[in-house]
Specification:
Layout (H helix, E strand, L loop, with lengths): L1 H9 L1 H7 L3 H8 L14 H7 L2 H26 L2 H16 L11 H11 L1 H18 L2 H11 L2 H5 L6 H17 L1 H8 L13
Helix pairs in contact: 2-6, 3-5, 4-5, 5-6, 5-7, 6-7, 6-11, 7-8, 7-11, 8-9, 9-11
Length: 202
C-alpha cells in the first residue's frame, strides 16, 4: 500500500509537465487569450481556429511532445517501461485537468505523444480512423473521439503480459479524451457542432 502511494505521488512531476499550457502561451505570443475566443479551449484545434494554422501546428507539436517526453523520462528515470506508460497517463491527466485557474485541453495531442512512445501501431490505426471520420464529417471532435476509441485495440488483441500497461493506459487515455469531448458530442447530436475551419493567416 505504501509503495502504491509513493508511486502515485512520484507521478506528480509528469502531471505538472502535462499541465504546461501550450495553447495559452502560444496565444499570448500573438496577443490573444485563446480561453476567451472560439470554444475557449487551449488545444490545437481552437488555436488554429482563432489564430491560424501555423499557431495550431505549433501547439499540436508541443502538446504531442509533452506526452512523449512524460513516457520517455518516466521510463528512463525508473528503468521501467511500465512506469513510463503511467507517467504518460499522468501527463494526459495534467493536460486535461490542469491546476486551477489554468484551463485544460482535451488531450488528443498529448495522448498521441504518449501512444507514439508506447505503441506507434496503435497511433497509426487511430490516425487512419481520424482521417476516415474527418473526411466524411469534417468535424474534428467526432474524428478525435472515434480515433481515441481505437487506441487500446492493437495491444488488447496481442495477449502479452508486457502489453497490459499499454492497454490500460490507452484505455484510460481514450476515456479521458471522450469525457473531455462530451459537450462536443452533445452539440453534434443536436446538429450544432461546427465544421473545422482554421483562420486564414495574413
Amino acid at each position: 500500500m505504501a509503495e502504491t502511494i509513493l508511486t502515485f505521488f512520484s507521478l506528480a512531476p509528469f502531471y505538472l509537465l502535462g499541465a504546461f499550457p501550450t495553447g495559452r502561451l502560444v496565444g499570448k505570443l500573438y496577443g490573444i487569450d485563446v480561453t476567451r475566443e472560439g470554444s475557449g479551449n487551449i488545444g490545437a484545434t481552437n488555436v488554429a481556429r482563432v489564430i491560424g494554422k501555423k499557431a495550431g501546428i505549433t501547439t499540436l507539436s508541443i502538446d504531442l511532445a509533452k506526452g512523449f517526453l512524460c513516457c520517455f523520462l518516466g521510463a528512463w528515470l525508473a528503468s521501467d517501461e511500465s512506469y513510463g506508460a503511467w507517467s504518460g497517463l499522468a501527463g494526459v491527466f495534467g493536460h486535461c485537468f490542469s491546476i486551477p485557474p489554468l484551463k485544460g485541453g482535451k488531450g488528443v495531442a498529448t495522448t498521441s505523444g504518449v501512444m507514439l512512445w508506447l505503441s506507434p501501431l496503435s497511433l497509426l490505426l487511430a490516425l487512419f480512423v481520424f482521417a476516415g471520420v474527418y473526411s466524411m464529417k469534417r468535424v474534428v471532435s467526432l474524428a478525435s473521439v472515434a480515433a481515441a476509441l481505437f487506441l487500446p485495440l492493437p495491444s488488447l488483441l496481442n495477449q502479452s503480459n508486457s502489453n497490459i500497461p499499454i492497454t490500460l493506459v490507452a484505455a484510460c487515455a481514450a476515456l479521458i479524451v471522450v469525457f473531455r469531448h462530451k459537450e462536443n458530442l452533445k452539440r453534434f447530436s443536436e446538429g450544432r457542432e461546427e465544421v473545422f475551419q482554421s483562420k486564414k493567416e495574413s
